[in-house]
Amino acid sequence: MRLTIAHTTQYRYDHPVQYALQQLRLTPKSRAGQAVVSWDIHVDGGREELEYDDHHNNRVALVSFGDGRTEISIRCEGIVETADNSGVVGAHGGYAPLWLFLRSTPLTRAGNNVRKLARQAAGDHSGDLEKLHALSRLIGETVLWETGYTHSATTAEEAIDHGRGVCQDHAHVFVAAARALGIPARYVSGYLMMDDRVEQDASHAWAEAHVDGIGWIGFDVSNGISPDERYVRVATGLDYTEAAPISGLRLGESPERMLVTLQVQQ
């Protein structure tokens, strides 16, 4: 499938910003199941300082914004060819060793809630793949998809407490529970072409786990499936903070408003 993506993030400030530095993880990866045909990033109000591949093999652009800006815009657009591999990404790659994906982070630390889900998912299942599919179903039943209950700093434990959350929370809970089962897992940010709309409110997130003999496999808890040809992988990390599309810092105390427009279509 050939997907066309147009994604704009606009920041507005009540007072001029003295200085801002942003990391952009907005370039899709050409890997098993997808090939980037074309991709461009345009920044209005700033300049690209450098570009590099991080330890997760994410393409990162470091962008600075000079003094006096009250509006900053980042637009990326391109075409990606995708295939349905039933969620299988395959062999581990990149610079980070596989054992690193067993390490917890503040957002994915396994407490009583996560460990309980992990034990329930393991149940009578002997194989890792069966456990992971059971875990995905169980999280979807335990943390219902609903906005307004969580935010970008909500932990896996807190999301289970709320019983509500969005794709980011589902991915964090899955990653935390998989690691509690001794299975390497990571967070994925990217795009999903929805069947009922072109205009979307935000990009998407899901999780991947590494199974011996198969490699990395994707699990989208929010939609109850493994990623197919409608998905585009962009960045991976131990949690949201390492795979966020845009992250950074700024000087000044002016309130920030963010507007996102996103189109994903065939």
Automatic annotation (TrEMBL):
This is Transglutaminase family protein. The lineage of its organism: Bacteria, Pseudomonadati, Pseudomonadota, Alphaproteobacteria, Hyphomicrobiales. It holds the Pfam family Bact_transglu_N. Residues 159-223 form the Transglutaminase-like domain. It comes from the Bacteria. Coiled coil: none annotated. InterPro entries: Bac_transglu_N, Papain-like_cys_pep_sf, Transglutaminase-like.
